[in-house]
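Long-time lurker, first post. I've been practising inverse folding by hand and with some scripts of my own, and I keep getting stuck on stretches where the structure tokens seem ambiguous. Below is the full token string for one chain I'm working on. Before anyone asks, I'm not after the true native sequence, just a reasonable design that respects the backbone. If someone could post their per-position residues I'd love to compare against what I wrote down in my notebook.
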């Protein structure tokens, strides 16, 4: 084809013909990338606010809740609790003032599902929240969004202004007598504020720390009033549900997990990005069909699902259906939808240490099991990865994990040990190699590896020149040697060797 020759229509593939999209079912992400998120008109043109109109003009709040219960929609923020029941509890709670809140405090490493929705389709969130507010009897709502998402906040503010101008937010919406006002609260980035009671404390201007439950937010929430909190993706499902009806929605998914789920594919995978798939699809299909398999043709090792609170799924469980109950049975959890793929060069002990380091630093410190327990576990994992592991450390980790899960105040502490427990379950041999043999099988833990020059060395001397500690000795055209006492394991020699004569083990 000549450089300036126009492309024929027949040469442009449809979405369905692209492997990344062929097995996806985009309900929540339908508008992302296809409409202008700044345009109210384009959202309306894509069936926007039809669900709200239908609800306000033809349904009672009780009918809305019953319809939602029929869908079997479960919270997409990680808990997996029935959204319909949650709304019903708040609807039936006595009180003249109620609040509806959106948790947009997306803090999981590697997760960007909520951010993409807020930036790409803000009106879907507003519509879902308005329907929810009508159902539970709320006239005021808050979107709790972390300040690190400035574009999302800007688009939400603009969308709120547009909806108010169109009479779809504010007082006496569509002449029905229903009032609903929305505010945005910018969070400071504390991971613990993803927990609903800590989130409400933050909105009230207090330090974001969880409180014991009961009472649950549906009874006494924001400023002591009945409140309902849902995740961004949960609310984004609502407009579609009320546009097409519960019967149509339940055609997707499994018996106990209906609809679709958005995952953020990251890690050692060829196709990264957001993938929205029907519940019940296998993990293998997500990683190898949608994700295009492992980078550089390397071997798959594990996938971390559910963020810091989740677990690692090994290769022999790749055919596990992706639904709430199957993942929990496998030692993982759905979580908000972060999905980190790891290859053969990944050390699972190091992975567990990474996620525990995150949860330990994000602990609010209110309860002792989480504050002290995670710190002690992290210290033990550091010792193991640095060659100071001792016999009995694995058993201590298991005991601590059990105590932290049972004794912590909120879900952050209760689920913090999950990465350790799942890696111990499926990769116990790696822990034992670190402790008993002082060896990292993946060659990741710096203190447990060494660099060695093989017999294929041609004595060029390049490795000797780049060594920062003069640990390499040898004559030109003669076999060189590395002094393990002087070696700082920087790997500069291995990178420089033109004959691949230096190995790491």
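-- Answer (accepted) --
I ran through it position by position. Result:
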């Amino acid at each position: 084809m000549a450089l300036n020759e126009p492309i024929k229509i027949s040469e442009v593939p449809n979405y369905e013909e692209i492997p990344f999209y062929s097995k996806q079912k985009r309900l929540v992400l339908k508008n992302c990338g296809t409409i202008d998120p700044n345009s109210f008109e384009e959202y309306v043109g894509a069936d926007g606010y039809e669900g709200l109109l239908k609800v306000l003009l033809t349904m009672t709040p009780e009918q809305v809740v019953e319809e939602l219960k029929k869908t079997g929609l479960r919270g997409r923020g990680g808990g997996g609790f029935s959204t319909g029941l949650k709304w019903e509890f708040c609807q039936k709670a006595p009180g003249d003032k109620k609040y509806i809140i959106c948790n947009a405090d997306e803090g999981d490493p590697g997760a960007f599902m909520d951010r993409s929705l807020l930036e790409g389709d803000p009106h879907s969130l507003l519509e879902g929240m308005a329907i929810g507010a009508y159902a539970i009897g709320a006239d005021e709502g808050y979107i709790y969004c972390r300040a690190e998402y400035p574009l999302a906040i800007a688009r939400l503010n603009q969308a709120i202004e547009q909806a108010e101008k169109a009479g779809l937010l504010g007082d006496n919406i569509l002449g029905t007598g229903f009032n609903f006002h929305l505010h945005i609260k910018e969070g400071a980035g504390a991971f613990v504020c993803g927990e609903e009671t800590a989130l409400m404390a933050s909105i009230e201007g207090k330090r974001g720390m969880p409180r014991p439950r009961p009472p649950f937010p549906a009874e006494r929430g924001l400023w002591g009033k009945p409140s309902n909190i849902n995740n961004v993706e949960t609310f984004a499902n609502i407009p579609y549900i009320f546009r097409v009806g519960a019967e149509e929605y339940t055609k997707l998914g499994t018996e106990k997990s209906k609809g679709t789920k958005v995952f953020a594919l990251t890690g050692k995978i060829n196709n990264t990005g957001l993938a929205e798939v029907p519940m019940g699809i296998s993990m293998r299909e997500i990683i190898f069909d949608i994700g295009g398999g492992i980078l550089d043709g390397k071997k798959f090792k594990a996938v971390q699902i559910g963020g810091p609170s989740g677990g690692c799924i090994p290769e022999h469980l790749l055919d596990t259906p992706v639904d709430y109950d199957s993942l929990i049975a496998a030692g993982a959890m759905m979580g908000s939808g972060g999905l980190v793929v790891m290859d053969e060069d990944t050390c699972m002990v190091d992975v567990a240490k990474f996620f525990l380091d995150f949860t330990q630093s994000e602990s609010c410190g209110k309860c002792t099991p989480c504050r002290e327990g995670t710190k002690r576990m992290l210290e033990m994992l550091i010792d193991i990865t640095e060659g100071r592991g001792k016999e009995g450390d694995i058993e201590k980790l298991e005991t601590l994990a059990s105590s932290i899960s049972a004794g912590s105040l909120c879900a952050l502490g209760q689920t913090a040990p999950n990465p350790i427990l799942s890696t111990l379950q499926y990769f116990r041999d790696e822990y034992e190699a670190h402790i008993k043999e002082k060896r990292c099988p993946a060659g990741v833990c710096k203190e447990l590896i060494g660099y060695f020059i093989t017999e294929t060395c041609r004595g060029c001397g390049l490795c000797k020149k780049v060594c920062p500690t003069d640990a390499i000795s040898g004559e030109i055209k003669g076999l060189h040697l590395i002094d393990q006492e002087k070696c700082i394991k920087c790997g500069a020699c291995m990178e420089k060797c033109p004959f691949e004569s230096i190995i790491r083990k």
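A couple of notes from the structure itself: The chain has four domains: 20-249, 260-343, 359-436, 450-504. The chain has 21 helices and 14 strands. Happy to go over any region you disagree with.
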